Amino acid sequence: MKLSALQGKEIINMDDGGRLGIISESELVIDVETGDIESIIIPNQEGVMGFFGEEKYLLIPWQAVQKVGSEVVIVDLENDLQAQRASI
């Protein structure tokens, strides 16, 4: 699959059906040696900035991706340990 094929796809959590974001609004962490995707970083949906000017992000490991469809990417974030909140 080409990286451009992921552009514009919505990320949906299969555990609760929640919409997490869109790949075009997200960043992908790629292993420079293998070219494999390691994780997806999604900006916080609650607003532009958190307290003290920190932006909040959700880090989804690529292993949580269950299916890449024509319009959506389905992830399984049933276990809270799979997704990590991060501040930048």
Main attributes?
88 residues; mainly beta; SH3 type barrels; 4-stranded mixed beta sheet; 4-stranded antiparallel beta sheet; 8 strands; 0% helix; globular
In whole angstroms, how far apart are the ends? Answer: 29 Å
Put simply, the count of helices is 0
Query: In the CATH scheme, what's the topology name?
Result: SH3 type barrels
**What letter string, H or E per element, gives the SSE order?**
EEEEEEEE
| Large-scale geometry | globular
Order of strands, main sheet, comes to 2-1-7-6
- Mean pLDDT over the full residue set: 80
Name the assembly state: single chain
SS class? mainly beta
Low-confidence stretches: none
- Binned, the helix content reads under 10%
Give a written overview of the molecule.
The protein is an all-beta fold. The protein has one domain: PRC-barrel domain (SH3 type barrels, Roll). The chain is 0% helix and 42% strand. It has strands at 10-13, 19-22, 27-30, 37-43, 56-61, 65-68, 72-75, 84-87. The N and C termini lie far apart (29 Å). The mean pLDDT is 80.
SSE blueprint:
Blueprint: E1 10-13, E2 19-22, E3 27-30, E4 37-43, E5 56-61, E6 65-68, E7 72-75, E8 84-87
Task: Produce a short descriptive summary.
This protein has 88 residues and is mainly β. It has strands at residues 10-13, 19-22, 27-30, 37-43, 56-61, 65-68, 72-75, 84-87.
